[in-house]
Write a structure and sequence with these properties.
Blueprint lengths: L14 E2 L6 E2 L1 H15 L5 H8 L3 H7 L3 H25 L4 H18 L1 H9 L6 H5 L1 H20 L7 H22 L4 H14 L5
Antiparallel strand pairs: 1-2
Helix pairs in contact: 1-2, 1-6, 4-5, 4-6, 4-8, 5-10, 8-9, 9-10
């Protein structure tokens, strides 16, 4: 038997909670941070996140990073959940137009369910790089949307090379409509889904 001590796995060392010494890994801390944001709103501080997770602030910094790193990590998690949810909805559609309506409805629905998280990842950081921050959620979701767009166009003999631009364009339209809808909270979601889907599908043609 070797006398050498066991080697810690590579990566950041895991921390212990300030309360009971339980190991607090990155995913556990991110889940706790999401709960704090959901419960307290997008302006929640790092101090509040650390306190709510039962860890010291240095542990939170070591495992996750500063506020901008936390925003990015939660944006990545939210983008994955959004893409998975919307992909499942699109799979149930019988036509391409119905699939688009399902995509729009799924995006709005998840943004409404995760209102505080959505606002946190789109405006909760402190970085001066606002371009990067504003694209955090879009970068994660656009890749997921581009693949089915390219596949659909390829299957119908159309150029799939537009998929990346189209996916960002689609997300850009959805993002600002969603922010408006979350602010107004008066327009029926079904009407918003129908109207934005019509724009995305047919453009501004009147015939």
């Amino acid at each position: 038997m070797s006398n050498h001590p066991a080697t810690r796995p590579r990566g950041r060392p895991r921390g212990r909670t300030s309360a009971d010494g339980v190991i607090a890994d990155r995913e556990t801390l991110l889940s706790a941070a999401e709960k704090l944001v959901r419960d307290n709103g997008p302006s929640v501080s790092l101090e509040a996140v650390a306190r709510g997770a039962g860890v010291t602030k240095p542990t939170l910094y070591r495992e996750v990073g500063d506020r901008d790193a936390l925003v990015q990590a939660i944006a990545e998690r939210l983008a994955v959940r959004m893409a998975e949810s919307i992909t499942n909805l699109i799979a149930e559609a019988s036509t391409a137009r119905e699939g688009l309506c399902q995509l729009v409805a799924g995006y709005l629905d998840l943004a409404a369910q995760e209102r505080n998280l959505y606002l946190f990842v789109t405006a909760g950081g402190t970085s001066e790089d606002r371009l990067q921050q504003s694209l955090l959620l879009a970068d994660g979701a656009a890749e997921q949307f581009a693949e089915p767009i390219a596949a659909y166009r390829r299957a119908h003999g159309a150029d799939p090379g537009v998929a990346n631009v189209w996916s960002y364009g689609l997300l850009g339209a959805l993002h600002f409509v969603t922010l408006w809808w979350l602010r107004e909270q008066s327009a029926p979601v079904d009407r918003v889904v129908d109207q934005i889907s019509e724009l995305l599908w047919s453009g501004m043609k009147l015939e």
